[in-house]
Amino acid sequence: MQHEIDVRTLQKFDEQELQGLSDVLIDCVEGGASVSFMWPMTRSKALAFWRDAAASVARGERIVLAACDSTGTIVGTAQVVFAQPENQPHRADIAKMLVHRRARRLGVGAALLAAAERHALSSGKTLLVLDTASPDAERLYARQGWQLCGRIPDYALMPDGALCATTVFYKSLRGP
Ligand SMILES: CC(C)(COP(=O)(O)OP(=O)(O)OC[C@H]1O[C@@H](n2cnc3c(N)ncnc32)[C@H](O)[C@@H]1OP(=O)(O)O)[C@@H](O)C(=O)NCCC(=O)NCCS
What is the pTM of this model? Predict the structure, then answer.
């Protein structure tokens, strides 16, 4: 399946892309992912989030990746966030790694993560950091060579209001 997935960077964010990204975000939150939003998840919250992300892309602060299936439908997304203090010019965060439930376990997450790492490196970033509340995501990051730093209990809320931990990972992209 992975070869049928096209991962690309989004630049202008047309209406179809905003709606497609919102479909993915809404599906993930409705599926119980702890990715900043609480239930009830709404399209207006999702669209506002992606419009902010588009403005941030336009300011050069981040890259937003979209994974599209063979029909061109967005089934997953991830971000490389560059905006960092001036003493961390070599670092970026990976954020909002999201795959629609109907496209999971097909390699989309792995393809997005590999693309995010490639874009970070080609932008001069050699240290990547992320945190996740998802055991599925933890396995993905560990499989792609990310180093687990530790777990912070009660870090955030699940969409239903229950407290959840987050697990912090990093990956150095410097060669040996
Ligand atoms: C975490 C997440 C992004 C993973 O996306 P994904 O597209 O399912 O990831 P992959 O397909 O690359 O890998 C998932 C599993 O499918 C397996 N897989 C990949 N391709 C496969 C294939 N062709 N056939 C069978 N299994 C396959 C992988 O080995 C992996 O197995 P594991 O769960 O036992 O470790 C997704 O679960 C998600 O969006 N979760 C909700 C949002 C969230 O919490 N995101 C994390 C924020 S940091």
Answer: 0.97
> One digit per residue, pLDDT tens: the chain, 176 residues?
445 899 999 999 999 999 999 999 999 999 999 999 999 999 999 999 999 999 999 999 999 999 999 999 999 999 999 989 999 999 999 999 999 999 999 999 999 999 999 999 999 999 999 999 999 999 999 999 999 999 999 999 999 999 999 999 999 999 77
Q: Which atom of ligand 1 is nearest to the CA of 143?
A: 35
Is the bond preceding residue 40 a cis peptide, omega within 30 degrees?
yes
CA 113 to chain centre: 8
d(CA 89, CA 120): 12
Q: Given ligand 1 and candidates 79, 99, 132, which is best to mutate, with the most ligand atoms within 8 Å of its CB? A: 99
79 lines ligand 1 (CB under 6 A): no
3-state secondary structure of 164: strand
